[in-house]
Amino acid sequence: MRTAYSVETVRTAERELMARLPEGALMQRAAAGLAAACADVLGRVYGSRVVLLVGSGDNGGDALYAGARLARRGAGVTALLLAPERTHAGGLAALRGAGGNTVTGGDGFLGTAQELIGRADLVVDGIVGIGGKGGLRPDAATLAGFAAGSRAVVVAVDLPSGVEADTGEVLGPAVHADLTVTFGTHKPGLLIDPAREYAGSVRLVDIGLDLPERAELEALQHADVAARLPAPGAESDKYRRGVVGIAAGSARYPGAAVLAVSGALRGGAGAVRYVGPAADAVISRFPETLVSDLGPARAGRVQAWVVGPGAGDDASAVAEVLEAEVPVLVDADGLRLADRATVRGRTAPTLLTPHAGEAAALLGVSRESVEGARLASVRELAARYGATVLLKGSTTLIADPGGGVVRVNPTGTAWLATAGSGDVLSGLAGSLLASGLSASDAGSVGAYLHGLAGRFAADGAPVGAHDVAEAVRDAWRDVMG
Ligand SMILES: NC(=O)C1=CN([C@@H]2O[C@H](COP(=O)(O)OP(=O)(O)OC[C@H]3O[C@@H](n4cnc5c(N)ncnc54)[C@H](OP(=O)(O)O)[C@@H]3O)[C@@H](O)[C@H]2O)[C@@H](O)CC1
Ligand SMILES: Nc1ncnc2c1ncn2[C@@H]1O[C@H](COP(=O)(O)OP(=O)(O)O)[C@@H](O)[C@H]1O
Ligand SMILES: [K+]
């Protein structure tokens, strides 16, 4: 499991470790890791031109100590000091001692900075790290703009300056990094858009922090998914493996039913039962589907329901499914039609799978505000509905209603932004629910396989949702290794 911890947790762990180590040892570990990453990026350190953007805190200190290490290896290093009188004293002395230069504020500072950054091979962003709040202040923002416009590689120290470490929100100008070297643990912002996009690739430097068991955010890895995937045993039959019911599609959107069934058939359930007006389309594509023209309540037993994809305005199917005492996944139109009090009152697990637009409608806010604050949005929805919520999009998050650790899916690809791929996910996750996974596991394992399937199917070229469904089996095999 990959984990991310909040600033508060990092600070506590940092204090405990600092108390046991000689003064400055932790910063030296950070700086050594940072300098090694910079050297890797540069290839040849000797003779390279390095510019450090240095703020007033320890983040700037890290940059200065790393700069000193690079200067000792023959790089030409210049530090641009945003707050000269509050610059980390030890770091500054180390850089000067190693032959590095400094440029301080005042007239001509920005002009000089622009020139230096324009000629640099590497820019190290030590403006602000976990001590930052809000978007960058004006001079810092101007330097970030110069860095973005230069041909230099930009390496961020701990975090790209200007992003919110705990939430992934970006409240104003921020540094766009090619690489972020982060210390001790990932911070939630490094895994959640929009901040994630500012981080570039992320390299974690172990500085020996002793972190608590419970993280703020976790991302499944192959082994975690493999441990959760259902597998038939000698005693299995199609019913014991779980039957998933799909109440989806409409005369207008029969394809949604077909795609949800296509996902469900690849999700581990022993049988897929379809209820709705698209039975002919479903059967002609997937003859193994059990179809019924009765409503969900009379269609026969299932171990989990999926309701909503392409359902149009059929509120009665949604209401019937929510009455069932089995796990239920509600997607797409079903989200609009589901009564909140009914969802809250359910005793069996409920998994809601909105995209940002649907989440926005449920929360009564704009789509942009959901996309700008995904973590807060998914938590708020889970709390309001008393349900597990999977918020889809460029970053997919899964939150349980009682608070606690939120899962982030690491496998997504933008190729999944294609009509109907959400229907495949709902069938797939519903099938995992029917196989006995918890709502949180079904959502996160489903999203993991779906993302991987999207990557395999696309392989660099556009895909249709049906291609994604077909590639789920490759994803499953890959995970099982
Ligand atoms: N934790 C660990 O284990 C380890 C941590 N280490 C390192 O320490 C870093 C944390 O250092 P930190 O606490 O000194 O805070 P930091 O991020 O430098 O920022 C504070 C300064 O920034 C300023 N500032 C604030 N907002 C701003 C804005 N929007 N735009 C511009 N400026 C802004 C603010 O100014 P002020 O508000 O005081 O005027 C304040 O002076 C951490 O990220 C890591 O790199 C490693 O060395 C060792 C292991
Ligand atoms: N930019 C993106 N990066 C990664 N995944 C994305 C992106 N945009 C959409 N997706 C994924 O594609 C799927 C789209 O689902 P959804 O929005 O419900 O579409 P539809 O209703 O057409 O099926 C979701 O799994 C979502 O997480
Ligand atoms: K930084």
Automatic annotation (TrEMBL):
K(+) binds at residues 59, 125, 161. The keyword Isomerase applies. Its cofactor is Mg(2+); K(+). Binds 1 potassium ion per subunit. (6S)-NADPHX binds at residues 58-62, 129-135, 158, 256, 310, 355, 423. The keyword DNA damage does not apply. Pfam families: Carb_kinase (PF01256), YjeF_N (PF03853). Residues 221-479 form the YjeF C-terminal domain. In the C-terminal section; belongs to the NnrD/CARKD family. HAMAP family: NADHX_dehydratase, NADHX_epimerase. This is Bifunctional NAD(P)H-hydrate repair enzyme. It comes from Streptomyces fagopyri.
